[in-house]
Amino acid sequence: MKIARALEEAGVPEVEIVAPSRVLRDLEAVKKIRDTGLRLITSGLIYAYSPRLAEESIEASKSLHRFDLLMPVTEKREPFDRQSKVRALLDALGAALSLQCHAGVGFPHATQTEVGFLLEIAHKAVERGAERITIYDTNGSVEPFFVYDLIGRIRKEFQVPIFFHGHNDLGLAAANALAAVRAGANGLDVTANGLGDRAGNAALEQVALGLHLGGYSTGIALNRLKSLSELVENESDVPVSKLAPVVGEFVAHHISASHLKNPGLFEAYDPTLIGIKRKIDDPV
Question: What is the pLDDT of residue 284?
Answer without folding.
Answer: 58
